[in-house]
Amino acid sequence: MYEQRNTPLEQPAAQKQDAIDINDFVFAATGARVRRLTMPDGTHWFPAVDVCKQLGYTTPRKALLDHVPEDHRDSLETVTGSHCLSIPAGREWRRDMSLVNLQGLIRLVNGCTKPESQPFKAWVCEVIATIQRDGSYSLEPAPAHPAATGGIGGTAYAMPQQVADAIVRLEVRNIQADEMMAAFQREQTDLLREISRSQGTIARDQSTIARSQRLIAEALQDIARTLRRHRPEPELTPQQLLTTWTTKNLVFTEDVHAVAACLAPALVRGEARYRRDRHTYGALFRSRPRLSAHAAQARLHAADRLRRGRGPHLRTAVATP
Question: Buried b vs exposed e over 12-25: b needs ≥16 C-beta within 10 Å?
Fold first, then answer.
């Protein structure tokens, strides 16, 4: 609740004591503490937006048009200017802000459906009924009240029971709301602390996972290096074996080349079984008719020695990839 007492600089403020404290009166009527401007003549003005918000009005402009006559509402600039006062400091006080006086506030209270305002409205109804029945309504003087100050006496009145009960209920509600808010804040703090611990645990788990991934990557790299070092030799084809022999001058004549071409596939497959019969001799004769039978047989024996590994050239050819 913000209270602003504006008084002109050239004259002192007129001192006037309210029968019921304005703060308690507005609190019982609206169920909340709202900002207030008190003029030098003792009148009170309230920001319409604050009052409408506390009473549950969604559109303050419409609420003013529906419930408050023009003589009970005005702009901040007009209200302060009529008393030769300046506009209060602060961004929350705007020149075009709509204000309502106490009568306008009571009209807004009577037009709202807020449960917290029902006791006040019941008391207003009782006051009106009492005036209609008895012709007047007066507050009971307080049993004891402090002496007035400033040389001007004043009488303290007992607060109406309905208003006092409403204030007590509202205060109890506010206390409960404060307790609930404090409990919520404690729960929120505990939750944030738990979240912080969970985040720490997650960070540690992520660090462990990262280390495990690095170890796995290193192990895979070691496996790859091992595989590269122990890479199996590529399988040798008959043509590659024959080319190797030719490169190392192991096949130095055409007839040896013919025999080697026949032996290379069998050597690569790990076996070479050829019968030395007349068909083999005939093939050699046909491929080289200039050779005699004795020469052909000698060449065949040489090739056979190569096949069986007896010759030095074959061992070199087979051992060298």
Answer: eeeeebeebeebbb
Does residue 7 fall inside a structural domain? Answer: yes
Q: Is the CB of residue 171 less than 8 Å from the CB of residue 119?
A: no
Q: Per residue in 20-57, pLDDT tens?
A: 888 888 888 888 888 999 888 888 999 999 999 989 89
Q: Residue 4: beta bridge partners?
A: 37
Instruction: Look at residue 16 and give its three-state secondary structure.
Output: coil
Report residue 248 as tokens: 């190392």
Is 98 among the domain residues?
yes
Instruction: Specify the residue for token string 């409403």.
Output: 166
Q: How many domains does the chain have?
A: 2
Q: Which of 91, 111, 140 is the last residue of a domain?
A: 140
Query: Which of 84, 112, 140 is at the close of a domain?
Result: 140
CA distance 32 to 1: 8
Whether the model clears a pTM of 0.85, i.e. scores above it, the answer is no
Q: Residues 92, 121, 60, CA angle at the centre, nearest 5°?
A: 30
Q: 102 is in which domain, residue-wise?
A: 3-140
